[in-house]
Amino acid sequence: MGKTFSVREQVKLQFRVDATNAFNHPSFYTPNQNLSVGSDQKVGEPFDANAAGSQQITRITQGGRTVQLGARLSF
Q: Which of 34, 41, 42, 44 gets the highest tally of CB atoms within 10 A of its CB?
């Protein structure tokens, strides 16, 4: 986003803002696809959701908010 102002006939001042992920929404990576059942899990028992190797989201696809401000004086 930017805005240019005329200071005088030949002088202009431009303000500019560049932003990435401006609203800071998380974008999660795909969960861990490797499921394994602990050695204490017995056949026929219900699956324990907290077993070792459960699907977990451990990363995000993009970082947090980044904002860059700038000004330019042209004459």
A: 41
